[in-house]
TrEMBL record:
Ranges of residues in domain N-acetyltransferase: 8-172
Enzyme class: transferase
Protein name, per record: GNAT family N-acetyltransferase
Classification via PANTHER family: N-ACETYLTRANSFERASE, UPF0039 PROTEIN C11D3.02C
Pfam family, one: Acetyltransf_4
Length: 172
């Protein structure tokens, strides 16, 4: 895998990133079963999601940019796992990379930065749901110490078919 790491900067996301982040996410909404959202979003519709990821605390948004052009290449998040109070020390993590920026190690850079940021937070476990099949995402999560804990069979329907989701867990 070629590495352009020296040309990529990872930083916390901010409101000025909203349009580019929405465009990346909408690609996965329209073209893949990686997310189970089925309709594209406007940036305004995604604003509450962005604002729910401040620069500190357990719910983070890390953004990878090309250092020269400042174009956003991808992002990683840690979000609430479930809304009930006892889940407060668990997060669900995800990574989305621009479709033309894959296979450059950007997901690895993003997850590295995200887990470094979470190291000082009161987070006990990270969870990731991976729609199957997705070998690249499985490899990324295993590289970061996630372990497979089970599969929800045919839990989501998109593009006229049902999809399984494999669940992974990481101790923090």
């Amino acid at each position: 895998m070629p590495s352009d790491h020296a040309e990529v900067q990872v930083r916390p996301g901010f409101e000025g990133d909203l349009e580019a982040l929405t465009a990346i996410y909408n690609h996965y909404v329209r073209e893949t079963a990686i997310t189970f959202d089925t309709a594209s979003f406007t940036p305004e519709e995604r604003r509450p999601w962005l604002l729910s990821h401040p620069e500190d605390g357990p719910h983070r948004l890390m953004v990878a940019t090309d250092q020269e052009s400042q174009r956003i290449l991808g992002y990683a998040t840690s979000s609430p796992y479930r809304p009930k109070p006892a889940y407060v020390t668990s997060v669900e993590t995800s990574v989305y990379v621009a479709p033309d920026a894959g296979r450059r190690g950007i997901g690895t850079l993003l997850y590295g930065a995200l887990f470094r940021a979470l190291a000082g937070e009161d987070v006990h476990r990270a969870y990731a749901g991976i729609a199957q099949p997705n070998e690249a995402s499985t490899r990324l999560h295993e590289r970061f110490g996630f372990r497979y804990v089970g599969t929800y069979g045919e839990v989501g329907r998109k593009f006229g078919r049902y999809w399984d989701v494999a669940w992974y867990e990481k101790r923090l």
